[in-house]
Amino acid sequence: MRWISLVLLILLLYVPSVSEAQTTISDRRIEEKKRLSADAAPSHTLLRAPPFWIQAGGWANYRLISYRNLDKDSHTKDYYSFYRALDLRPWAQLVYQTSLMQQEGRVHYFYTRLKVAYVEQGGTAPGLKYDVNGPLFDYAYGSFDLHPWKIEAGRKYFSVGRGIAYGAVNDGASLSYALRDFQIGLEAARSLPHHPNIDTSVPGYDKASRRYFYGPTLSFTGFSDQYLYAYWLSERDHSREKPDDPDLDHRYNARYAGLGAHGDVTEHWSYWAEGIRENGHSYSSVTSEASAIAAWGFDGGAEYDTQSRLRFKGSSEYGFGSGDGERRSVTDTVGGNISGRDRGFLYFGYLPTGVAFSPMLANLHMARIGFSCYPFISSARFKGIELSADYFRYWKDQRTGGIDDTEATGTGRDVGHETDVRLDWHVSARVAWTFEAGVFTPGKAYTSPADDPETVLNAGVTIVF
Predict the structure, then answer these.
(1) Nearest-5° angle of CA 448, CA 449, CA 453?
(2) Mean predicted confidence (pLDDT) in 440-457
(3) What are phi and psi of 40, to 5 degrees?
(4) For the whole model, what pTM was predicted?
(5) Nearest Cα to 233, choosing from 253, 207, 219?
(6) What is the pLDDT, as a whole number, of residue 348?
(7) What's the first-to-final CA gap in the chain, in angstroms?
(8) How far apart are CA 66 and CA 120, in angstroms?
C-alpha cells in the first residue's frame, strides 16, 4: 500500500506537464455530458485491507454526430459533415478510512482517471481526418476530509455557482470550512497546459493559453430545502503571444461577483437562479488601450415534477448575457471592443443550450421550455426509456453587436429558434443508449445565403465496466 500511495503521489505531481491534444471540433456540450456520465459511474472494490482499499472501474462511449448545413448555407458543402469518436476512460481510486472516520462519515482518497479517444471527422475542412488523443490524465487529485476542513488538490473539475462564470477541468486546489449552516470555500486553479485560448485572435492561441482563477465562495443551508450562495472570482490572463504582437495587447482580466439560490418551493415545484456581475479590464482592438468591463449575466428557471407514474416533468428557463454594440466577436480582442466600456459578457464556464445551436450566453437572451417522461415504465424491457424535448428562442441584447456564431452578420435582433428531441435508454445499470436531434431555424440576425436551417443528429452508446 505504501508503494501504491507513492505511485499515485508521483502521478499527481506529474499532472501539470500532461495536457490533452485538441480535436478540430471542440464541443463543450458533448464533453460536459461525458464528464457527468463518467463522474456518476460506479467503481468496483478490487482489494480491501482496512484502513486502505482500492477501487477501479471504467467507462467507454461511442458517439456519432451528423451535421447538415453547419454553416447555415444549403448551397455549399459543409465544413464538417460528421464526427465520430470512441472515448475510453478507466479510473482507479486509493481510499483511506479508519473505523472512526467511517463513523464520522469522513474519507480520504486519491483518484486518477485516464482518457484516450479515437476521433474521425468528415467534410471539406483541411487537415487530419482522424486523430488519437491520449492516453492522458483526465482527472488526478487527492481529497482529504479533515472535518470541518476539506482539501482537494490536483486535476479535477473546478467551478463556482452553477458553473457559468467558471467551470472547467483545471489544475488547482480547493479549501472549504464547514461552520454550522455555513460553508466557506476558496479555490485557486489554472488552465490546462497547452489548452487553446478562448481568444482565437491571440498569435499561437491554440497552444498558448495560461489563465489563473481564484476566489472565495460562501453558501448557506439554514433554510429548509433551500441553498443560497455567493462567490467572488478573479481571472488573470498570463497567456503568451507566439509570436509576440507589438501592436496589440490581448490580455483579458475579469472579476465576477455571483449571487444565487436553488431549492424546492413545494412538493412539486423547484427553482434555480443566479445573477453575475462582471468587472475588470479588456483592451481595445484599435488603440490597445485598457477598457473597463461592465457586464451582466443571469440564468434562472423552474421545474414542475408531477410525481406521476410516468415521471413527467416540465421546465422553463431564461438566460441572459449582456452585449457590446461595438463587438463583432464576443471572445476575441480583434473584432472586440473599440472604445469606452466593454459591456460584453465573457465567461469561462458552461451553460447548456441547444443540440444544433450551442452558443455562449454573450450578447444573447435565451428562453427555453421543455418536458421529459418515461412512457414505457410498465414494460420490463423498455422501462428505462426516457423521452424529452426542448424548445429554444434566442434574441440579441445589442442589435449591432455580434454573437458566438460568426455566421450571424445581420443586425436583426431575432437570432432564431430551435427544437430538440432526445431519447435515453438505460438498458441496464451498465449500458445506455442516447439519441438526440436538433433543428435550428435562423432569424433576422442571419442574412442570405447563411440563413438556412441547421440540423444535427447525435447518437451514442455508453458502457460502464
Answers:
(1) 95
(2) 93
(3) -85, -10
(4) 0.89
(5) 253
(6) 95
(7) 24
(8) 12
